[in-house]
Structure prediction request, 252 residues.
Amino acid sequence: MIDDQALHHLVGRLRRARVVAVMTGAGISAESGVPTFRGADGLWRHYSATDLATPDAFARDPGLVWQWYRWRQGIIGRAQPNPGHFALARLQSRTTGFSLITQNVDGLHQRAGSANVIELHGNIWRARCARGCGVVQDAPGQAPREEPVAERDAVPVCRCGALLRPDVVWFGEALDDACIDLAVRAAEGCDVFLAVGTSALVYPAAGLPLLAVKAGALVVEVNVDDTPLTPHAGIVLRGKAAEVLPSLESRL
Ligand code: BJW
Ligand code: ZN
Prediction:
């Protein structure tokens, strides 16, 4: 049940807002059937997702890490953007100053029609040279997956001879400077900041809503559960992003 009073208050603030920033996490894609990282279904075989999203895991067993990414590509390739993604695309089209920051690598915001998405953690549909020769290309294994099994399980190789890796940001790796700069500016310059479907545990992304609070913005959390951000949020909308966001956007 969405808190009607909170929604009403937020509608007023959004109507008056000049600049709106939204940051999304895995929860917004949950209704599209994409597993979150830390939920009950955030496990793959015997590995937790967060154990595989590391440079060490890739150095130890690149084949295992690629298998995991190909498994996820399969799910994401079959998934469709949900009403939450579409509501944010509509919100962008009706708001002059609007930034959409996502921690997700699934590209579902773009498929829902959002433009200029700031992808903090990269994109699962790209691969890059693990040695850093500068090669970035479409990731192998895109759906539909019709390659023979042997090829699917092989680790792709860059033209320089090094391994290719998913073009995503793993634990301990720096985020792209331009992306994080844009995100920080959006957080510090907005009137309203929506944090949607994120556990607010992973930095520097988790610091962005806190920057917005410090700069005087109204911070709104949309999540099915409490997170470390909850005590700092001015408004908390408990519920599924795919239900809360369309309900909010339709009232504007
Ligand atoms: C719903 C819902 C519905 C469900 N509707 N809601 C101590 C030790 C080690 C490291 C650190 C440390 N302290 C700090 C660090 C740094 C580290 C960090 O933050 N670690 C913390 C875990 C402690 N951060 C980093 O390492 C970052 N880099 C860095 O700091 O670099 C410094 C540096 C500078 C200069 C040179 C070198 C280094 C990088 C972080 C990269 C994170 N990467 C991943 C993988 C990306 C690729 C991939 O997808 O495979 O990003 S990990 C994973 O977590 C992924 C996500 O984007 C990210 C955040 O997860 P998210 O989106 O919040 O998902 P969940 O599953 O956690 O939460 C889902 C939420 O949705 C829940 O709240 C649900 O309730 C909710 N929900 N259904 C609404 N229907
Ligand atoms: Zn290379």
